[in-house]
């Protein structure tokens, strides 16, 4: 895929260029998707009592919320290659808003499980976010752009933990019962998702020079086969044959999969283990996600900085370091029995979780540019596969949440070794080093012209 005129700078307050509009709309859309995806999580204590759910059933709903996303992420990456991120995101937001608003009709475990399963498809939004920023930004800033857009999107996990209990409390103050309150509260994220989907369609475009449909028609996209057709149908097979893709699949399972798991259990964990109110537990749980304001961006920034002197090898080394520190911090967090210490260690753990995520997608754009969507889809699916695997630790009646978190930390440390499997040929290393230098020189030249 030949994408021209990528941005070599991130101008946060510029909304006039297609690159920056894609940047801002992609992170905001992902943020809102988190709002819908995990909106029910901070209310699970109420839902559990209303529907009479056991711990195993709660665990099954957690698994359901992330399981379907594995499959949808695999598909959505190839779909981005075919129809472009603009249409893919618009349809996902509009259609995804329907099960979010409909979960209120659940009246037993089975219907609630099906609703959470359907809502889980929204999680594929991450792949589109990373795809859109990857084709909009040059090598010298693509790690930062990917990490920041995803990080500010993941921030939705934190704001959801804080806002949903407040929305629920507001409804109770209006005289609504708890049984009806959690159901009405879920209508709010559904409406916001629908409106965001319309906005994405109206105000963004697929690439710096236009939409994929028009670029293909004029031969500017450079991804057609010899018969003139779209070759995206073969990109998934290309990605599947690359062992580096599956190594990153495991790596992302160990960072984003862990974040999804914490988003699902944090509020109920603090509510039960530290005997807090629902609002207080949600507020503390929200701090984990709020670290995305800067933490995931830091992962991308360090990835770009490591690449300045050490090329693609530097990006991989930084990924290994971040993931290893995450695993160690998670094991420490699992052993905390004092609330203040638990919160402090959780923030350190959160920092490394999100930096590891940013570091992962600082590497992804360089694995295979022709199959970018497929690679991003498979690696992104790894995050949800990790969440599904972790979910089994927290549905067992024989394991406490503390034990589950400790075993999860050990798994993350082992998974960090997979980062070392990711290697690049000398030719690719040299090509990307030159592309980095050219983009950096263009950025420096543009900065000088503005003085």
Automatic annotation (TrEMBL):
<keyword id="KW-0534">Nitrate assimilation</keyword>
<dbReference type="Pfam" id="PF07690">
    <property type="entry name" value="MFS_1"/>
</dbReference>
<feature type="transmembrane region" description="Helical">
    <location>
        <begin position="405"/>
        <end position="422"/>
    </location>
</feature>
<keyword id="KW-0812">Transmembrane</keyword>
<keyword id="KW-0472">Membrane</keyword>
<feature type="domain" description="Major facilitator superfamily (MFS) profile">
    <location>
        <begin position="22"/>
        <end position="427"/>
    </location>
</feature>
<feature type="transmembrane region" description="Helical">
    <location>
        <begin position="180"/>
        <end position="203"/>
    </location>
</feature>
<feature type="transmembrane region" description="Helical">
    <location>
        <begin position="276"/>
        <end position="295"/>
    </location>
</feature>
<feature type="transmembrane region" description="Helical">
    <location>
        <begin position="339"/>
        <end position="364"/>
    </location>
</feature>
<keyword id="KW-1133">Transmembrane helix</keyword>
<feature type="transmembrane region" description="Helical">
    <location>
        <begin position="21"/>
        <end position="41"/>
    </location>
</feature>
<dbReference type="InterPro" id="IPR011701">
    <property type="entry name" value="MFS"/>
</dbReference>
<feature type="transmembrane region" description="Helical">
    <location>
        <begin position="316"/>
        <end position="333"/>
    </location>
</feature>
<dbReference type="GO" id="GO:0016020">
    <property type="term" value="C:membrane"/>
</dbReference>
<dbReference type="GO" id="GO:0042128">
    <property type="term" value="P:nitrate assimilation"/>
</dbReference>
<comment type="similarity">
    <text>Belongs to the major facilitator superfamily. Nitrate/nitrite porter (TC 2.A.1.8) family.</text>
</comment>
<feature type="transmembrane region" description="Helical">
    <location>
        <begin position="371"/>
        <end position="393"/>
    </location>
</feature>
<protein>
    <submittedName>
        <fullName>MFS transporter</fullName>
    </submittedName>
</protein>
<dbReference type="InterPro" id="IPR036259">
    <property type="entry name" value="MFS_trans_sf"/>
</dbReference>
<feature type="transmembrane region" description="Helical">
    <location>
        <begin position="61"/>
        <end position="80"/>
    </location>
</feature>
<feature type="transmembrane region" description="Helical">
    <location>
        <begin position="87"/>
        <end position="106"/>
    </location>
</feature>
<dbReference type="GO" id="GO:0015112">
    <property type="term" value="F:nitrate transmembrane transporter activity"/>
</dbReference>
<feature type="transmembrane region" description="Helical">
    <location>
        <begin position="152"/>
        <end position="174"/>
    </location>
</feature>
<dbReference type="InterPro" id="IPR044772">
    <property type="entry name" value="NO3_transporter"/>
</dbReference>
<dbReference type="InterPro" id="IPR020846">
    <property type="entry name" value="MFS_dom"/>
</dbReference>
<feature type="transmembrane region" description="Helical">
    <location>
        <begin position="245"/>
        <end position="270"/>
    </location>
</feature>
């Amino acid at each position: 895929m030949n994408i021209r005129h990528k941005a070599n700078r991130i101008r946060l307050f510029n909304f006039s260029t297609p690159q920056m509009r894609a940047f801002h709309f992609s992170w905001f859309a992902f943020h809102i998707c988190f709002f819908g995806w995990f909106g029910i999580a901070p209310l699970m204590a109420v839902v559990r009592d209303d529907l009479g759910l056991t711990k195993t059933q709660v665990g099954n709903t957690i698994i359901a919320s992330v399981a379907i996303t594995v499959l949808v992420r695999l598909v959505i990456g190839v779909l981005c290659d075919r129809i472009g991120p603009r249409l893919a995101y618009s349809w996902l937001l509009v259609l995804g808003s329907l099960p979010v608003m409909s979960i209120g009709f659940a009246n037993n475990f089975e219907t609630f499980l099906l609703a959470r399963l359907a809502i889980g498809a929204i999680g594929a939004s991450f792949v589109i976010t990373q795809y859109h920023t990857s084709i909009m930004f040059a090598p010298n800033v693509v790690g930062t752009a990917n990490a920041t857009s995803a990080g500010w999107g993941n921030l939705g996990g934190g704001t959801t933990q804080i806002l949903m209990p407040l929305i629920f409390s507001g409804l109770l103050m209006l005289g609504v019962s708890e049984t009806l309150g959690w159901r009405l509260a879920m209508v709010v994220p559904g409406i916001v998702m629908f409106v965001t989907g319309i906005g994405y369609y109206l105000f963004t475009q697929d690439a710096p020079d236009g939409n994929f449909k028009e670029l293909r028609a004029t031969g500017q996209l450079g991804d057609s086969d010899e018969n003139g057709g779209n070759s995206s149908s073969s990109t998934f097979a290309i990605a599947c044959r690359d062992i580096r893709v599956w190594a990153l699949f495991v790596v992302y399972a160990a960072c984003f999969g862990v974040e999804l798991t914490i988003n699902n259990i944090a509020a109920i964990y603090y509510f039960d283990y530290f005997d807090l109110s629902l609002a207080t537990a949600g507020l503390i749980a929200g701090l984990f996600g709020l670290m995305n304001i800067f933490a995931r961006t830091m992962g991308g920034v360090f990835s770009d900085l490591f690449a300045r002197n050490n090329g693609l090898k530097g990006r991989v080394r930084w990924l290994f370091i971040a993931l290893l520190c995450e695993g160690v911090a998670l094991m420490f967090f699992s052993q905390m029995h004092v609330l203040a210490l638990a919160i402090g260690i959780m923030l350190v753990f959160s920092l490394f979780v999100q930096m590891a995520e940013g570091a992962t997608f600082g590497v992804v754009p360089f694995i295979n540019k022709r199959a970018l969507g497929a690679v991003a889809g498979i690696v992104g699916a790894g995050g949800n596969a990790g969440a599904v695997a972790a979910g089994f630790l927290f549905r067992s009646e024989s394991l406490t949440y503390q034990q589950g978190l400790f075993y999860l930390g050990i798994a993350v440390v082992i998974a960090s070794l997979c980062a070392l499997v990711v290697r690049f040929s000398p030719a690719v290393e040299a090509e990307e080093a030159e592309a980095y230098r050219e983009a950096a020189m263009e950025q420096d030249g543009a900065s000088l012209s503005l003085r």
